[in-house]
């Protein structure tokens, strides 16, 4: 007969009420004077027998409390005894391992690192991990919930009953953990959290590597993805002196199943997307957010599971396959990374342990008015650790080559989209979010220190100084920044009727005033083709011919202008309607229904990409004044622009744009070299559905000063066009490259009567 002490009675009371923070101090195997005592809490069990490894019975346990607590003392045994429990229920008998005989997966050092926010890879400890302890396979579960009264793991393995597996609490870190023997890969689970107000909260795992398909919200236990080793090709492709042309993709609407309008899975996407991107000449793919999210209409920008690739398109292994196929094709993969806010869904991070754990408690700091979301509390070490660890996770475990950080401006300014009185100044009285700035700097510095070849890109819409400056120089440490100013100015210009463009000439040139203050990317992203902004084609004025000509000319200007390029899917063939995340792109436009116009645009973008990637003058010196020179900058009356792009070896390319529908014959323009010039690409070529006005390939140069240059060339500028021109010495010194560019050289002839 086992006698219960007052302490034993207190444990039984606390465990049965779900109030015990350390069930391991009572349950499981413990040393006593003459041997060991084994205790178990098994709700609804009729009998419990201790058995050995061969399932031989050792002894039947005594029911020590009517609330289904069992115990037995074994003389002469030690706490390293290997045993199991044979549990008889009303309709079934189960042979189970006792989870309370296994030690914690956490060391004191792990707990210290996690509480300090300095654990570089917190995902290797927190969450659900398939492990083996004492030669028994199972899953180790852990979660950070410092203010909870009790946390239990619930799932398939325990009938979703929070009484059965209360977890161990680590007071020095606020982490709860337990090892569930024999739990298998694919197990569904959640954390049942009893908050300090006595409310039960059922939460998905913040560190889950996979989740159920919405609307279900359980986490799915799966293995930590294998590491993807970096290589020199991928590392080099992110460098500022390399060509970067990004195809931005929403996986749910790029292409869909024609029979049921449902999504393609990761493998199907890989089979179709990668060859297409390769043929189009893009160097990078940028994926809109793929961390698990509950609402399709958020496009992924309101994630609830940062570590879980969305189950919409398949498993994490499927995503691995997609990225691997991109790498095999020489294409780098960029991921949109959302760490500025998160949704209020009950199963997610909001009010996680009954307190504002991941978010600020004051809505002036913690609530995002524009998106009805919550803002991370970057001042908490554990929150910073959760987020920065996620950056490394995607890079190291999936081979993501760059992270495009969403909505940076909303992170670094406390008054972002707020009126006076709706925000709280920082400790110095300023508007900067010092904690968010610290987080971004630390994350960028950490990724650079890991030396995995990854890059970070900021979507930052303000004039905040030093976004792409190194952390040591007080910068944020990003590699690139979206040039939102250039995008807005140039689109405003292009949407203006050509007859009025001369009054807005500076919109196309102003970007050069700040071009070298940051390492800029030129983005024509998804944000510009939704919410009534029209498609790229729809922004262009004029009739059908003029709209397409305008857009071709604009793309040519953009591909010639300094800065890496980004184009959202569908823009490459000038989809006529706005992007709809619920439907496939209008691929039918590339057939007869498109009248050839869209196919011509597709060919133009493809040829721009191939010319760009094979012409160092167009990318090597993007971030140096030595790589750019205006040749014609002040011809507002005729809306003509011309500039020269230069490579490190002195080779150059001249880009000339005429943004009126008027043919400019005998347009004299100053140049730097006396040589024979050659038109190598013309947006007005009939090949692209243009009017086929051009310069017959070769262009003579004369010792006739113009535009403050000693030499000049006499051009025919097609209507609404962009030309790419090289000089003969450049061509002769680079014959190999000329041969590879034959596919993009279009000799144009004047059409009859021109």
TrEMBL record:
Q: What Gene Ontology terms describe where this protein resides (cellular component)? A: cytosol
Q: Which residues form the active site?
A: 406, 459
Pathway membership, UniProt: Glycan biosynthesis; glycogen biosynthesis
EC number(s) per entry: 2.4.1.18
Every Glycosyl hydrolase family 13 catalytic domain range = 248-605
Reactions catalysed: Transfers a segment of a (1->4)-alpha-D-glucan chain to a primary hydroxy group in a similar glucan chain
What EC class is this? transferase
Q: Which GO terms describe its biological process?
A: glycogen biosynthetic process
| SUPFAM superfamilies listed in its UniProt record | (Trans)glycosidases (SSF51445), E set domains (SSF81296), Glycosyl hydrolase domain (SSF51011)
Q: Which family does it belong to?
A: Belongs to the glycosyl hydrolase 13 family. GlgB subfamily.
Protein name in UniProt: 1,4-alpha-glucan branching enzyme GlgB
What gene name does this entry carry? glgB
């Amino acid at each position: 007969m086992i006698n219960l002490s007052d302490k034993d009675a207190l444990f039984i009371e606390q465990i049965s009420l779900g109030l015990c923070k350390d069930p391991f101090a009572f349950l499981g195997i413990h040393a006593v004077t003459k041997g060991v005592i084994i205790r178990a809490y098994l709700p609804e069990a009729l009998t419990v027998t201790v058995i050995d490894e061969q399932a031989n019975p050792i002894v039947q346990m005594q029911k020590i409390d009517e609330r289904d607590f069992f115990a037995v003392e074994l003389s002469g045994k030690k706490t390293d005894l290997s045993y199991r429990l044979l549990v008889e229920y009303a309709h079934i008998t189960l042979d189970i391992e006792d989870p309370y005989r296994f030690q914690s997966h956490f060391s004191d050092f792990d707990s210290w690192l996690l509480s300090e926010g300095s654990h570089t890879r917190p995902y290797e400890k927190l969450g659900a991990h398939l492990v083996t302890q004492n030669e028994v396979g199972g899953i180790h579960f852990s979660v950070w919930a410092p203010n909870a009264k009790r946390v239990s793991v619930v799932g398939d393995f325990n009938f979703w009953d929070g009484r059965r597996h209360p977890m161990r609490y680590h007071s020095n870190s606020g982490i709860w953990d337990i090892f569930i023997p024999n739990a298998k890969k694919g197990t569904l689970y959640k954390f049942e959290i009893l908050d300090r107000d006595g409310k039960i909260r059922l939460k998905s795992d913040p560190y889950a590597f996979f989740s159920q398909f919405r609307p279900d919200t359980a986490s799915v236990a799966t293995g930590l993805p294998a590491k993807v080793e970096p290589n020199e090709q991928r590392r080099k492709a992110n460098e500022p002196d390399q060509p970067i042309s990004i195809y931005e993709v929403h996986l749910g609407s790029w292409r869909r199943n024609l029979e049921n309008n449902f999504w393609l899975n990761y493998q199907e996407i890989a089979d179709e997307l990668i060859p297409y991107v390769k043929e189009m000449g893009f160097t990078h793919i940028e994926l809109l957010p793929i961390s698990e999210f509950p609402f399709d209409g958020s496009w992924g920008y309101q994630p609830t599971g940062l570590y879980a690739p969305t189950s919409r398109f398949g498993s994490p292994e499927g995503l691995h396959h997609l990225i691997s196929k991109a790498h095999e094709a020489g294409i780098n993969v960029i991921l949109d990374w959302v760490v500025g806010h998160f949704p209020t869904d009950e199963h997610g991070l909001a009010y996680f342990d009954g307190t504002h754990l991941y978010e600020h408690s004051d809505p002036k700091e913690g609530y995002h008015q524009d998106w009805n979301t919550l803002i991370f509390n970057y001042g908490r070490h554990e929150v910073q650790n959760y987020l920065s660890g996620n950056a490394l996770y995607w890079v190291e475990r999936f081979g993501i080559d760059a992270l495009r950080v969403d909505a940076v401006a909303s992170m670094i300014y406390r008054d972002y989209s707020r009126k006076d009185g709706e925000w709280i100044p920082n400790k110095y009285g300023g508007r900067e979010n010092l904690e968010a700035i610290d987080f971004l700097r630390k994350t960028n510095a950490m990724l650079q220190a890991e030396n995995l070849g990854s890059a970070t890109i900021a979507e930052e819409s303000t004039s905040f100084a030093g976004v792409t400056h190194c952390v040591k120089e007080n910068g944020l440490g990003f590699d690139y920044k979206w040039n939102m100013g250039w995008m807005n100015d140039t689109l405003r210009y292009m949407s203006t009727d050509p007859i009025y463009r001369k009054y807005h000439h500076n919109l196309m040139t102003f970007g050069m005033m700040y071009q070298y203050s940051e390492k800029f990317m030129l983005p024509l992203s998804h944000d510009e083709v939704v919410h009534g902004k029209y498609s790229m084609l729809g922004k262009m004025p004029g009739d059908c011919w003029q709209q397409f000509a305008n857009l071709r000319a604009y793309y040519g200007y953009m591909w010639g202008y300094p800065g890496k390029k980004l184009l959202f899917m569908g823009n490459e063939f000038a989809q006529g309607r706005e992007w709809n995340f619920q439907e496939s792109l209008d691929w039918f436009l590339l057939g007869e229904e498109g009248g050839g116009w869209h196919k011509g645009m597709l060919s133009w973008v493809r040829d721009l990409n191939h010319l760009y990637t094979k012409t160092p003058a167009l990318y090597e010196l993007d971030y140096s004044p030595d790589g750019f020179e205006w040749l014609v900058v002040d011809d507002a009356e005729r809306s003509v622009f011309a500039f020269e792009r230069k490579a490190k070896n002195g080779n150059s390319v001249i880009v000339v744009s005429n943004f009126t529908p008027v043919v400019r014959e005998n347009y004299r323009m100053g140049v730097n070299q006396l040589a024979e010039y050659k038109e190598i690409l013309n947006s007005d070529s009939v090949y692209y559905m243009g009017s086929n006005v051009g310069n017959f390939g070769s262009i003579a140069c004369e010792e006739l000063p113009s535009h403050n240059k000693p030499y000049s060339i006499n051009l025919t500028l097609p209507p609404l066009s962009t030309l790419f021109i090289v000089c003969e010495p450049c061509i002769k010194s680079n014959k190999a490259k000329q041969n590879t560019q034959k596919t993009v050289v279009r000799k144009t002839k004047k059409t009859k009567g021109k």
